[in-house]
User: What shape does this take?
Amino acid sequence: MPVSIKECCCFLKKIGNPRRIIHFALLASETSFSINEIEALHDLFERLSHAIIEDGLIHKSSGLRFSATAARTICWQILFDIFDIKKNGVIEFDEFVRSLSIFHPDAPESDKIEFMFRLYDLKHNGFIERDEMVLALLSEMNVDLSNDEVEAILDKTILDADLNGDGKIDLEEWKAFIPKYPSLLNNMTLPLLR
Amino acid sequence: MEEEKHMLLGGKYEKGKLIGTGTFAKVYHGREVSTGESVAIKVINKDQVRDQGMVEQIQTEISATRLVRHPNIVELREVFATKSKIYYVMEYVSGGELFAKVSGGGRLKEDVARKYFQQLISAVDFCHSRGVSHRDIKPENLLLNGNDDLKITDFGFSALPEQKRYDGLLHTQCGTPAYVAPEVLRKKGYDGAKADIWSCGVVLYVLLAGFLPFHDENLMNLYRKIFKAEYEFPPWFSPETRKLISKLLMADPERRISIEGINRVPWYRRGISRNSSFRSKRERVSSPDPTPGLKKSISSPSFFNAFELISSMSSGFDLSTLFESKEKKKVASMFTSKFSAAAIVERIEAAARGMRFIVETEDDFKVRIDGTEEGRKGPLAVTAEVFEMAAEMTVVEFTKDSGDTLEYERFCEEGIRPALKDIVWTWQGDVGSSNGAGEVTVNSG
Assistant: This one.
């Protein structure tokens, strides 16, 4: 396995930490990232995880610095719950890398579509439901829309996506819906990860 | 078997024959075994870059090279290292050095020289716009690919310490600092971008003349000539090329022509080749309607669905905010308005025409805006689309179809935004328009 320049420099400086390099190499083999990229993500992770409590983990409160509005706080909490694969209330570096891997430009689109479904499946019951969406929508808005207008938008959207007419969107319907609106996937790819 | 695998560099590349030797590095032809694709592999011995500062500078430059993807710049594909060596895997450029065309006293026709010079300036401009200057433009670094297009190489070394670099330069085959700007030779602080322009001037001269503008057996005399920008034009140089070269080879960097200046020179602009690799994907969808007037049947804009609303109106799920440094501001490209879709389209068209863009209405609610000037990555092409969000509320979204991102940002910030000020309700995604962190509730797991 070739070692990146950056790691070589680390070696030169302090004869490195072989355990860490093996750890990174392992992550690289299981995700879309190269070792260099994982190293860079580790720097980012350290910055985030040291925001409030310095224990090398990301806590829910760590996200505060980039959730400047109530709407973004809700988004952060949703993301946090998905990133926290082990459901133990903290995000470890492994979980961070594996979740971000889905945002890599080379990650399969089907993974992105499924991940996005989970963002909106707020009850984790396999459906995007109309009332969940109302909640999300209303809290997101910083545009002046009346409740009626929000309801109208939702009705039209459900009508468009709900193929079997049960009033909610399941994963299969979601998979058919997204390709019609490709711009929805924009946020699911971070060009910076390359 | 094991043994064989070991021989592959980085587990992927087969090293072929030596194709070049520099002061610090050897360059080999290589092949990616899985694809059979040719690459160039530059190998640097770590003993020669032992000094830690230098290693760090190499790293900086690697990231600089990653910033600059351009059809006239050799692409750096991968970097890896072993205990003793650093390997740069680069795009393989098959056509050899540009200067093979003028070696032995041959020279190029003005049209041919201009084409290469245009490609050189396009690449250099692109780098400068990304804050990277090459600082070592010279014959060995200008290559040609199979299509006879110019490729600049060796960005990875531009920031190596000057002492060593110029010492290195003195020992290259041409044996002279003939391409180096006077202020660089003086070893004072200098502007790398301006120094690059000088070097481009020397390159243009050499292509047209077949020999160097500054040459002298005696190194002291050579330096003196460069400091004073003392050179002569061969009789076959046209008045236009004389004028341009005298602006490029201006000893005082402050008075030297800028890239914007070069872009305005008629001789330079002539037959400027459009970089085909920058052509937008728009071509594929373009179906110019010969009778747009007859197509007035669509009466309402497309509907903006709930998910589009969520993902575009708030940047909550946009993780790129994690990676951005604070000072970098993202350009808002979407606004809401209480004006009618038709009124908005009219205003966008007028604004774009006012900026000398070509405007084409695709349907009633989609406007294509095309730049007339060749930008850094071809002309700018933008689409503006109006969606219906709710009664009396429309969303307008701008997307860049092709062209340079920085130019697009300027188009939005300095053109569109002020021009549409009075019809905009809010711009979405503006940084700084948030309501402050005060209302956020801490909810630690």
About this structure: Chain B touches chain A through 54 residues (CB under 8 Å). The first helix of chain B runs from residue 2 to 7. DSSP finds 15 helices and 14 strands in chain B. Residues 117 and 204 of chain B are 6 Å apart (CA to CA).
